[in-house]
Write a structure and sequence with these properties.
Elements (H helix, E strand, L loop, with lengths): L1 E5 L6 H10 L3 E6 L13 E4 L5 H8 L4 E4 L11 H20 L3 E5 L17 H13 L4 E7 L1 E3 L9 E5 L8 E3 H13 L6 E8 L7 H6 L4
Parallel strand pairs: 1-2, 1-4, 2-3, 4-5, 5-6, 6-10, 7-9
Antiparallel strand pairs: 8-10
């Protein structure tokens, strides 16, 4: 299976690519011009994309079996970023998948997506736009999964002591999770058919009970 990863030069995206490679997937990195990649990804297949160029995006996704969308606006003084990246940009990637026949899409979103009264919304209503992106994917007819991580940390140490808590939408609020574990959740979702059509919230803590994504989903509220 060939997996396309958009936002592959980002802090979460490059980890998604590394974990996909670790699991034996063929990877195509969708990156912007002048993006920098870690040495671990230098030899990967790459496509330079501009989300405003539909033909170029279609070409980048051609022959891929799935897409993991790891693009995301960062809190900044540019308050238009969330609308451009988390809503419009996601919609453009979905439309490209529909045109070229990429049927499996995983979107990295955020805990509390859609919530209005939240400090993150001071940065261009970022959680509102993320929810709009989620809804566009859910309404697309594609085989979709949304991964909603909690607060993202750069921690790469003692990951074996961190246990992931999976839940359905709007059940978690304030916990954190290392980006590396978010990347692993994306790859686990690829391998877990039960994740299709699901919003899955993920956080981590050493005290959580160890369960697989599949087992957790089976226990979600209907």
């Amino acid at each position: 299976m060939k997996v396309a990863i958009s936002g592959a030069s980002g802090k979460t995206g490059y980890r998604v690519a590394e974990e996909a490679l670790r699991e034996g997937y063929e990877v195509r990195l969708l990156i912007r011009e002048n993006s920098k990649l870690p040495d671990s990804l230098i030899n990967c297949e790459k496509s330079i994309v501009n989300l405003s160029n539909p033909k170029g995006l279609d070409a980048a996704l051609k022959d891929c079996d799935s897409l993991i969308i790891a693009t995301g606006a960062r809190p900044s003084i540019d308050l238009t970023g969330p609308a451009r990246i988390d809503a419009i940009g996601v919609k453009k990637q979905i439309a490209s998948c529909e045109r070229v026949g990429v049927n499996r899409v995983i979107l990295v979103s955020s805990l509390c997506a859609g919530r209005f009264f939240h400090p993150l919304n001071l940065f261009g209503l970022i959680l509102i736009w993320k929810r709009i992106g989620e809804q566009a994917l859910a309404e697309s007819g594609l085989q979709w999964t949304v991964i909603r991580p909690g607060g993202l940390s750069e921690n790469e140490g003692n990951l074996e002591k961190e246990t992931i808590l999976f839940s359905g939408p709007d059940e978690q609020e304030e916990a954190y999770i290392p980006r590396r574990l978010v990347a692993r959740c994306c790859i686990e979702a690829l391998k877990t058919s039960e994740s299709i059509g699901r919003i899955i919230e993920v956080t981590s803590n050493p005290s959580n009970r160890v369960v697989s994504m599949k087992t957790a989903i089976e226990g979600f509220k209907v």
